[in-house]
Amino acid sequence: MKKAIMLLLNGETLPQLFITIVRYVLPSEDHVVQKLLLLYLEIIEKTDVRGRVLPEMILICQNLRNNLQHPNEYIRGVTLRFLCRLNETEIIEPLIPSVLQNLEHRHPYIRRNAILAVMSIYKLPQGDQLLVDAPEMIEKVLASEQDQSAKRNAFLMLFNCAQDRAVNYLLTNVDRVSEWGELLQMVVLELIRKVCRTNRGEKGKYIKIIISLLNAPSTAVIYECAGTLVSLSSAPTAIRAAANTYCQLLLSQSDNNVKLIVLDQLNELRSSHREIMVDLIMDVLRALSSPNLDIRRKTLDIVLELITPRNINEVVLSLKKEVVKTQSGELEKNGEYRQMLIQAIHSCAIKFPEVASTVVHLLMDFLGDSNVASAVDVIVFVREIIEMNPKLRVSIITRLLDNFYQIRAARVCSCALWIIGEYCQSLSEVESGIATIKQCLGELPFFSIVEEGEDTDSSKKVQQANSITVSSRRPAILADGTYATQSAASETAFSPPTLVQGSLSSGNLRSLLLTGDFFLGAVVACTLTKLVLRLEEVQPSQVEVNKAITHALLIMVSMLQLGQSAVLSHPIDNDSYDRVALCIRLLCNTGDEVKKIWLKSCRQSFVKMLSEKQLRETEELKAKALVSHAQPDDLIDFYHLKSRKGMSQLELEDEVQDDLKRATGEFIKDGDDANKLNRILQLTGFSDPVYAEAYVTVHHYDIVLDVTVINRTKETLQNLCLELATMGDLKLVERPQNYTLAPESSKQIKANIKVSSTETGVIFGNIVYEASNVLERTVVVLNDIHIDIMDYISPAVCSDAAFRTMWAEFEWENKVAVNTIIQDEKEFLDHIIKSTNMKCLTAPSALDGECGFLAANLYAKSVFGEDALVNEIRSLSSRREAVDARVAVFKPKRFLAPIFVVHFVFRVTQEVTFTFEPYFYGKRSFDRCFFFLVC
Q: In this protein, which residues make up the domain named Clathrin/coatomer adaptor adaptin-like N-terminal (predicted)?
C-alpha cells in the first residue's frame, strides 16, 4: 500500500491495482492498513474523462458505510475525516444518514469529525440540497455540546456556512465568551474580524468582546485579541490596551521567536501611534534583560524612536545600568552588546544634549576596551559631545588626558589625538596634552645602533637610557606577538639596527609606532604642531615655547628616522612622510595664515559636518511623515451631530479617530494601475491553444503568482495542471491541483512561492492538459518568470564605521563590461541611486563643485536584514580608459543570503565602459550580480 501510494503521488495511474486492493485490503481489520487504504482512495482518480463517477466506486461506498457504523471509534473517526476530502456527490449521497447518526455518538472524537464532515458536504456545489437543514442541526449540537473541540468545530461550521446563526449565537452568549475554550475563542476572533470588515458600523459591540478576552489565560488568544483590536479600532483606549498586552507578552514569554514577533508588532504600533507608545517606553526597555542580541537590537531601535524630553532621563539611566552590567564579562557577546548600548546613548545625547554630562564620563572608561568597535564608538561620541556641549569641554579634556594611556587601538588613538589638538585651549591643557603625548611615546630615539667595540658598561648605560635597545642581535617573534632578541655574530665593526618592543608598561603610542603604523605617527605630528602653535598664543615665555618646539621637532625627526631605517620590515609610506615633513616645516617657519588654517579651519569643517548630519536627519524625519490628502468629493460625517445614546467611551473615541483618518485620507488606497499592469507577465503565445498570463505579487518572504489560464479551443480540457519549478533560493509551497476547463472559458490559478534570500530567482514550468480527441497529454511550455531582487531592497542609513567594517570583507572576483553614455558625474550618481534603490550617505556639500572627481557612499538594506553597500569614485580623464568597478558579495554568519557591495571607479571618455569585479564567499552563481547592470 505504501509503494502504491508513492507511485500514485509520482504521477502513475495503476488502474489494474484497484480490484486487487478491493479484494484483499478492504476486508482487513488492521488500523494502519485501513489508514493507508483511505489515503489510497483519496488520491486515485474517481471519475472518467467526462467527469462521471467510475462504476467500481460503488464498491467503495459500501465499505465506507460499514466503517461509519463500525464499533471501533478510530475507524469511524478516520472515515469521517476522509469524507471531508471527497468532492464526488454520487459517492457521498448514500453516506449522509450514517454521517448524521455520528453527530450523536457518545465519543467526542467521532462527534467533532462528524461535524467537520457535515460542513464539507454542505460546502459542496450541491451540498445545500443534500443537507438542507444542516445549519439548524449544527446549531442544536452547539447548544448541547460539552466537548470544547467539538464545540469549536460546530461554531466553525456556522461561521463558514451560516454566518448569521454564528453571530446570533455569539451575541446571545456574549457574557460567557471568556469561559469558552481557547480553540473556540480563536474562531470567535476570526468571526469578529470578518464581520467588522464587511460592516464597520457594527464593530462597537464586538470590541467589548475583544477587550474581555484580553484577560484570557491563553497567550495565543491574548495575542490575537491585541492584533484584532489594532486592526478594527484606532481609539487611544483600544491601542493602549493592545500595546499593554504586547508588553506583557514580551516580558512573560521565554521563546525568542515570540519576542521578536511581538517586537515587530510594537514597532508597527510605534509607527502609527507614537504618542501612545511613548508612555510604554520603559516597559519595552525591560526586554533588554533577554540575552539574545537580535531582541536587544530591536528593542533599542524601538526605544530610540520613542524618546521625548519627558522620558530621556529614565531611558539614559537604564542604558547606563546596562552598560555597567556588561563589565562583568559573564556573557560571550558582552562587547557587541556594549557597542549597541554606546551607540544608543550616543543617539540620545545627540537628540538631547543636556543628558550628555551624565553619560560621557562613564563611557570614557571604555576607551581602552578590548572590543575596538566599542572604543571607536565611544571616542566618536566624545568628539561630537565636546563640540556640542562647550560646558563639558574642560572636564572631558581632563578625563581624556588621564585615560589616554589606556587606549590600545590605533583608530581610537587617532581620534583622541585630534580632540586633544583641537580642544586644548588653556595653558594648563596645552602643557598637559604635550606632556601626555611625550609620556606615551617614551624616551627618544626610537632605535639606536650600538658599536661592538664599546665596553660593557657603556652598553648597559644605553640600555638603561632607552626602552628600546639595539645591539648585535636580531629580533625573534614570541608566541604572544612581542619581540625578543637572540645573539648573532657579526663580521663588521657595527651591528645591524634592531629593536625590542616594550612591554605593556611602555607607552601605547610607542608600541603602535613600532608596529609600523605611520599614519598614527602623522596624526601625532599634526597634534603636536597644533598644540605648539596654540602654546605660542597662550604662553608668555618664549623660552618655554622654543623648548616645546625643539621637543616636537625631535619627536618628528625620530619618527622619520625610524620610518626610513631598516629596523622595521616596511618603510614609512609617502603620504605619512609628507605629512610629518610638512609639520616640521611649519614649526620652523610659521605665518599667521598657516596658524589660522591649523587652529580654526579644521574645527570649522567639523562643525559644518555635524550641522549637515543633523540637517539630513531632520529631512529624513520630515520625509517619513508623509501626509495623504482626502478627495474633495469625500463624504463628510459630522461627529458632533451624531446621536451618542448607548455608545461607550471606546466607541466615541473610535468614531473620532475614523473621522480624522477619513479627513487626512488614510483610508484611501493609493494604488497605481500602471505599476500593476507592469507586473502582468505573458506566459504563453497568442497562437497557443491555452493562453496564460501571471500577475506577480512580491511580499516580504513569499511570492504569489495569480495565473489566468484561458481555453482558446472549442473542446473541454481535462486534467489541466500548472506545473511550476524554481531555480535559486525559491521554493514552491504546494503543487496546484488539476482542473477541467470548458471551451473558451478561463480559470484563476494561484501559486505560492517562499523566498529565503535576496537573490535573483527564476520560475519556469508548463501547462499540461488532456483533450477529448487526443489520447496523449499536451504540454505548453511557459515563459520564464524572473524575480527581481530590487523588490526586496530599500534605502537605509548606517554609520561610517559600520560601512567601512562591511566594506573590508571582500573575496574573489569576476568582470562584466557595461557601457553608458552618461558623461556628468552627478547625473550618473543619481542614476545609480535610482536604479539600485539606495540612499546616498555622503553629505550634499561633499558632492558640490566641478573638480572632475566625485566619491560617494551608498547604502540599502533588504527585508532579510542584509546590507547593500556602494562606494562610487569617479574621475575625469581626457584619454580613453576602461572603467573599473568592484562588486563584492559577502555573507555574515547571522544571515542566510548574500550581501551586495559595489565599488565604482569612473572616468568619463567618449565611450565609457564599466567593468564589474564581483567578490564571493564560496562558489555562488554569478547571476545575482546582474541586478546592478541596469546602469
A: 1-430
With a cut of 70, say whether residue 483 has pLDDT above it.
Answer: no
796 three-state secondary structure = coil
Percent helix, strand, coil in the chain, to 5, is 55, 15, 30
Between CA 888 and CA 27 the distance in angstroms is: 66
Cα–Cα distance measured from residue 227 to residue 238, given in angstroms and rounded to the nearest whole number: 11
Nearest-angstrom CA–CA distance, 728 and 183: 39
Contact 632, 668 (CB under 8 A): no
Question: Rounded to 10 degrees, what is the CA torsion of 132, 138, 144, 147?
Answer: 150
Kindly state the average pLDDT of the residues 433-443: 89
Q: Which residues pair with 870 in a beta bridge?
A: 858, 902
Residue 659 clears pLDDT 70, i.e. is over it: no
pLDDT at 660: 52
Place of cell 570614557: 364
Question: Looking at residue 238, what DSSP letter applies?
Answer: H
The model's pLDDT over 582-639, given as tens digits with 9 standing for 90+, comes to 999 888 876 777 788 888 888 888 888 888 877 777 776 666 554 444 456 555 555 5
C-alpha cell at 297: 537590537
The Cα–Cα gap between 354 and 357 comes to 7
pLDDT at position 284: 92
Please, which residues have CB within 8 angstroms of residue 740's CB and are 6 or more apart in sequence?
51, 716, 717, 718, 719, 720
Under the banding of pLDDT at 50, 70 and 90, the label for residue 126 is: confident
As given in the structure block, the three cell numbers for residue 909 are: 571618455
According to DSSP, residue 784 is labeled: P
Residue whose grid cell is 614609512: 572
Q: In 3D, which of 128, 24, 37 has the Cα closest to residue 75?
A: 37
C-alpha cell at 182: 481557547
Give the DSSP letter of residue 716: P
User: Does residue 191 contact residue 166 with C-beta atoms inside 8 Å?
Assistant: yes
Lookup: cell for 466: 632607552
Backbone angles phi, psi at 367, to 5 degrees: -65, -30
CA–chain centroid gap for 899, Å, is 12
Buried b (16+ CB within 10 A) or exposed e, 733-759: eeebeeebbeeeeebebebebebebbb
Distance CA 165, CA 852 (A): 76
d(CA 762, CA 760) in angstroms, rounded, equals 7
- Name the strands in the sheet holding 690-698, side by side, starting at the edge strand that comes first in the sequence: 680-682, 690-698, 702-711, 746-755, 730-732
Angle at which helix 518-538 crosses helix 427-441, to 10 degrees, equals 150
Q: Could you tell me the pTM of the whole model?
A: 0.67
Give dist(CA 833, CA 846) in Å, integer.
16
Provide the H-helix boundaries in 539-672. 542-564, 574-588, 592-596, 602-624, 649-664
Separation of alpha carbons 400 and 888, rounded Å: 38
- Residue 734 and residue 125: Cα distance in Å, rounded? 24
